[in-house]
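Continuing the batch. This is chain 6 of the set; chains 1 through 5 are on the previous pages. Same settings as before, nothing changed between runs. Recording input and output for traceability.
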Amino acid sequence: MSEGEATDRVRVADVLPEFADAFPFEKFNTMQHAALPGVLDTDGNVVVCAPTASGKTAVAELAICDTLRRGGTALFVAPLRALTNEREREWDRFEELGYSVYVVSGERDLNPRRAERADVLVTTPEKADSATRNHDSARYSFVTDVDCVVVDEVHLLDSDRRGCVLEAVVSRLRRLCAPRIVALSATMQNVSDVAEWLDAPPETTYDFGEEHRPVDLTASVATYRHGENTFADKYRRLYRALDIAEEHVRADGQALVFVASRQDAVRAAGKTRDVLAERDVPVGARGDYDLHTAAGDLDDEDLRHAVVDGVAFHHAGLSKADRDRVEAWFRDGTIAVLFSTSTLAWGVNLPARCVVIRDTKRHDPLEGEVAVSPIDVLQMLGRAGRPGYDDEGYGWVVCDESDADRYRRLLDEGVQIESRLAAALDAHLNAEIATGTVDDLDDALSWLDTTFYAVRARADPERYDDDLRARARETLESLVDRGFADLDDDLRVASTRLGRLASKYYLRLDTAAAFRAVADRDRIATDDLLKTVARAEEFASVSVRSSETDAVDRVVDDDISGGARKVLAILRSGMAGSTPDALRSDAWIIRQNATRLLSALRAVLAAFAGPAAANLARRVEARVEGGVSADAVGLTAVDGVGATRARTLAAAGHRTPADLVRAGTDGLERAGLSTGVAERVVDAAADLPDPRVDWSPPDAVARGANDLCEVAVRNEGGGSRLGVRVTVEGREMLTDDNYLRRGESMTVPVGVFGAPGVDELTYRVAVHAPDLPLPPVVDERTVRVE
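Output for chain 6:
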């Protein structure tokens, strides 16, 4: 009996009758059938390497079904956030069978109870890393209760920035709860290394060749000769891509063209409409009334015009409704040429007869110009060929003549997966110490031995050139020397407060050290915080493009250079609500990362500098995030008051939630709010703290005398942590903090002394909310010295 004949006889209902409705097909294909024994008849770890579009998702679903029928919980780790949402939609099939599917991602508020009760959890490497770092908290305790971890696209290990995260989280999960690991991958050279890392035996390690692709793939390289103008080069590559695609489009095929950015996708689609019309290529449906009507409902204006000409673009910036329509139209052939960013390579299964990679380099706001990784190239080309429609798929890489041989070797030989952990070993070892999975040198060595890094270092010692024991010892000693860990007399290691904060907030250790240094300053101003964040290691690779130089220089005239200068320009202009046009393309991602860093800086300042510095960081964070002025930022603490509404209310003279409560509904209506909104805003503002300061220092004190007074702080609003800071002539006398519920008070003693050589002293009592962007409540008094 041939393998194909055996597969024809294997129906899902025969193998997993209780889960037959969980699969979108009735019979397993050849690849899936071959993997059945390893997934269902053993409880060991499994590695499946197979070409793109060969049906690996079904293997993941097999592993999930096996876990569910054993009464366990499955964790599916997807490479992209967009993929987690797609899996959630597709796995309604599990919900219909009575199982709960829950997505844990950074874009959603976590419901710990739902996560704890879920049968299938879906997440990304980054969120899984965050969860496992905090596994001993009630919020994330669910992560150690998983019985099977399915890692989709495990070749992500080779990604420069994200590979080490995936490697660390899988190794940590194995130490925390020893789940079964089922790893899926596109074609790679060293499957055996991944299997060795995961302790998958030969009988459950599958390396399926190209014969398992549903459609044969022919991949080639097309060259162009670049000029001096990068903008003109994009159009040279576009014309080259369209020359390739035209043949297939004329033969009723479709082309998927990958470009570097969202903006490139929009521009390329617009130009392609003109080119196809000039060449009289038969695409589009301008006479189709139904398509015109449907296109009119699209949210994106450029997309509305493009789709009726048979051309479209797809990227993460489109609304979900627009993306869904584009995908449906491409699947049914309405769209002939689709331009996309790399999201479609990893995410939605949207094959085309012809795939062209127009751009092999892209601009990354945080990394500058970077080459598309070999893994991404192969992933994109793997989308060529539509099962059931095409006998063959065609993939092309358009590149400069000088790069042609490199890409030809990639297409001929594939890619070998390497570990990226070494570059971030200190941060990940710090996380293990903070998590509690490493508490001495032997533990550190044991942890390191569970990593893919150790496997590759043994397999290729010349490339890695590392004595793992020496590397572990050196890294551990460095963490102790830099204040991230403590070593006791018994050589046991424990995380310090700084080490725990660095782990919790995902900080690179140089950044955490810089944040700690800020906390030691006598005075901390807004610009100190902005410059510290701009110089953070996380922004070290940011570059200033020639088209951005003038815009940066108009905003920043300080002595700060390189990419930090650009980051500072974006943060300053963003706080003022006026980001220059030349900086807008990178501004969003830089502000998003800066907001995260400011949140971490706030936590470091709260730990080492006190509530006043933490409150300043919280206000700066809110201003960067919302683009509001210092006068309006306190209002953004109120639920229902965003940046625009905060500006409106600030223009009417309101600065704090307490001001809104005192103004009442009538006052907010006069400021321009509707009655219903005004009522909700007043109610929300009343839930925020309203601290009042009460103290009675003497008008005068004799020189050399000392009069002890009490400062009382009473909270007339909602409960919150509040800090009191008392200074005299700008020098801090004391600081204290406490959680005060509505109506509760705290008191601190203040010595009023008659200092020699002065005629008067200015005392300043300031009350800060370290966790809220509220301006401090200040009571300032002057005492004469007689």
